[in-house]
Amino acid sequence: MNTMTLWHISGWEFAALALAALLVGFSKTAVSGANTVSLAIFAAILPARASTGVLLPLLIAGDVLAVATYRRHAHWPTLWRLFPAVAAGVVIGTLFLVWADDGVVRTSIGAILLLMAGVTLWRRRTADRPDDPDAVTTRAGRAKAGSYGVLGGFTTMVANAGGPVMSMYLLSAGFRKLGFLGTSAFFFLIVNLSKVPFSAGLGLIDGHSLLLDAALVAFVVPGALIGKWAVHRINQRLFEQLVIAATIVGGLQLLLR
């Protein structure tokens, strides 16, 4: 972690990071995947590699709040099918981070954001009737879970960007709102906790990054409370369109930086 970067954040930059932290909390209890905006903000203000280490503890804080809110709605057969493939994706992502420098990571994050936005737009145009969540036990369901799991593990390790991947998987599997939120809450809490030793081993999490997290975590809590209040009131379609637009802008900004 570059400590000079942490201690020379301007007031406007800290305000942007605080807004991103609030969006982390909101995404965990309302619209999963909205934290791709947070990812873009963190990667734009901090070095791209360092940003993943600073963001991870904030994501875990949001996951804890989401589990406390939606713990009764998780679908465990889906989770058990996903975890082995996700573990493989996390290992692949860790090896990639060992090799990649900051510029490659920034470009990769931007490309991942644009890819997820493109796939999401494509899916919204072509999606057929969704499956039933219990279809995960079929052969086709296991293959689908495996492919999404590996991609989700890789993207969450490299860029903390597993949200859009898992959102598309859970939506295509036919999850209703509360089942979606409960399953994704446990999924990301377990996966993000498993990433901590890898991130610490790569030097992405240390005492200095945790100091910045301590200042930002206070903004995750109100974001989660706003999300809990808004989840039954929000215009989901409009918000998804805004998130996709912001994701595209963030991805382009990182690629052109």
UniProtKB/TrEMBL annotation:
Q: Which Pfam families match?
A: TauE
TM stretches of this protein: 43-67, 79-99, 105-122, 178-198, 210-231, 238-256
Annotated localization = Cell membrane
Any keyword Glycoprotein?
no
Regarding the membrane, this protein is recorded as: Multi-pass membrane protein
Top-level division of the source organism's lineage: Bacteria
For this protein, the record's InterPro entries field holds: TM_pro_TauE-like (IPR002781), TSUP (IPR052017)
**UniProt entry keywords in alphabetical sequence:** Cell membrane, Membrane, Transmembrane, Transmembrane helix, Transport
Record keyword tRNA-binding present: no
| Family as reported in the entry's similarity comment | Belongs to the 4-toluene sulfonate uptake permease (TSUP) (TC 2.A.102) family.
Protein name listed in UniProt: Probable membrane transporter protein
Q: What are the leading ranks of the lineage?
A: Bacteria, Bacillati, Actinomycetota, Actinomycetes, Kitasatosporales
